[in-house]
Each structure stands twice: as C-alpha cells, then as structure tokens.
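SUBJECT: A protein chain and its fold
Encoding: whole-number codes for local backbone shapes
RECORD BEGINS BELOW THIS LINE
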Amino acid sequence: MLEVQSITFPEGMTLQCGEKIAPLDIAYQTYGELSPTRDNAIVICHAFTGDQYVASPHPVTGKPGWWSRMVGPGLPIDTDRFFVICANVLGGCMGTTGPTTVRAGTERPWGKDFPPITMHDIVAAQVKLVDHFGIDRLFAVIGGSMGGMQTLTWATDYPDRVFAAMPIATSPFQSAQNIAFNEVSRQAIYGDPDWHGGDYQAHGVIPARGLAVARMVGHITYLSEEALTRKFGREIRPGTMPAPHDPLAALPFGGMFQVESYLRYQGSNFTRRFDAHSYLSISRAMDFFDLGSEHGGSLSEAFRGVKTRFCVVSFSSDWLFPTSRSRTLVRAITQAGGHVSFVEIDSDRGHDAFLLEEPDFDRTVRGFLNGMARQAGLAEGDHHHAL
C-alpha cells in the first residue's frame, strides 16, 4: 500500500494576490534518504497536469509514476545517492490545497472561489515543505515544462538555496501561442453544460466533456507531427463506426481514425484524476509567468547575482516550448554572468520527449548531476555509474 505523505501548515500562506490560504496542506512523495548533513536533496517539480507520484504507482490510475524511468536506485536521478522530494503543486487536486479542498470555516470546497495563484506562490508553498525537512540549501531543482517554470522561479526567488538547476523543455515566459491554446481549453470547460457557472460540485457533477476536450487540445501540443504520423498515420480503427450525430454517419465511408480514438481515450482517462477548477487555476498561473517582465523587461536582470549552476535542456521537435526559448534563457543567464550549460536533444517526439525513453537525455541528466555532485563535494552513493 502506497504511503500517503502530507503535511498541514496551520498558519497557511499569503498569496501574491494578497489573499491568505489557511490552513495549507501539501501532499508530497519522497524517495531515498536525506543525508545527515542534509546536502543531497533534489526537488522535482511536476508539469501542468502531473502530480507528486513521480516514481510511485498512481493511486487513481494504477499507472507507474510519470518519471519512474528516471527516478530510482541506479537511475539518472539516483535515489541511492539523492533524497528526492516531489510535491503536488498549490492549486492541484492530489492532496495539496486547491479548489477541491474544503475551505476552512465552511463545509464546501473552494471551487470557483479559490484565489488566483502564480508560479511564485507555487514555489513558496514548496519552500515551506523544504523548510519542514530542515534543508537550508537544495542540491538541485529539476523540472520539465511547467516544472521548468518552477525550477527557474526557485533559482531566481531563492538563489542562495539552490546549488544546481535543470530547467527542461521550458521557457522563461509563456508565449502568446501557448496562452491561446490554454484559452481554447478553458473555453471548452466553460462551455460544458455541467459547468453550472463553476458550481458543478454543488450539483454533484463534473464538466467531463469540456475537461476531456481541454486535455485533447493539450495532448496535441505535447506531440509532434512526426510522432503522430509514426504512431497513428491515417489508420482507421478496425470495427469502429462514426459516433451518433456525427455528420459523416450518413456517408458511405466511416469509422474512427486511430488518432481520434487515442485522443478520446486520453480525454476520458483525464477526467478521472483531474479537477476542472485546478485545470483553470494552474493554466492561468502558467499564462502569467514571465520572468523578464518582473525585472523591468530585462530577463538577464532576473538572473543577476544568481550563483546557481544551470543545465538547460530542449528537444529539437518541441514546438510548445521550442529550442529558441531555451536559447533566450541561456543568453540571459550568460549576460548576467551566470553558470549555464545547454543541451538540445535530437528527438522527433515533441514536447513529451522528456517523459519518454531518450538515451541522450538520460545521459545528460546523469552527467549533470554527477558533475554537480563532484563540485558540491557530495559523497558517492551505493552505486557508481560511468557517464
């Protein structure tokens, strides 16, 4: 049975918007052991629709952890050597305080009244958890996609507390195109007849169709054209017929394309484990992320005086967070006099490549962490792996 790890901070926290959330619950998972000197901790920040089950079976879906191929004994993020912490983000729906949490003093969940949050709020909540463990400085913070936004926020908001940082398949700001995709997803949720003006919980329903469409839109952006073509092409799923009310149903041809079936499956599964208000809340936090605008329009100023050692990673076919965004980030860190290395992984699997089997990426993660561990003077783990 998977141990549910959670902590409550009765004092809560004040958000950037000025509202206070109290108490504050943070659900998390840990892997490995914290060293006596507390110098081997790595925070892994999950992506938009991820959660804390980075290397543990998911309690709802039963699927392996979303990065179980990366985190564990002898793996690139070696839990024989490092103490790994992954928390469900603020605003999430897997145990950390969010829209599904019952609001103090009421018997109802926060729902549509959950206050707006930012990436700074999300990281500030994680800082409270790290403080709970008595960790003054993290060995590393690592995250892909929205997790990369959190990683950059950690390094710039708490520069003395992060020795090394690995922002993966991410950007120092949310692009107009990505905001546009997120808005289409939000409108799909708003347009669901079970939305009820955001009060769906009071009606005992969820806007499942809208949430499924939102997931489908998102999933398309996570893949590349090459990956979709290789995986599905134009194949028709055997034995399928058009859906009822499908305008093509009366035509002599029909059937469901494999890619349609795949997207519907992804959308349907998603509604089992994710909340619509969490989707809205977190997507808005991503959209408002822009490190440069917070520093007088100068991205390099965000990294002025930051001593954290960065390894920025992008993937060649990622059009959601393209390599050009990573290069912009690397230039800004360099202009600020920071320490940064940059790797573009050649892959045709799109944005999701950081979650998939990519040997060059595995070697990059292992190599960076081992190199940083030597610089930090960390003792070798039980397993030593050649780079």
User: Anything to note?
Assistant: DSSP finds ten helices and twelve strands in the chain. The first strand starts at residue 5 and ends at 9. The two ends are 35 Å apart (CA to CA). Residues 382-387 have pLDDT under 50 and may be disordered.
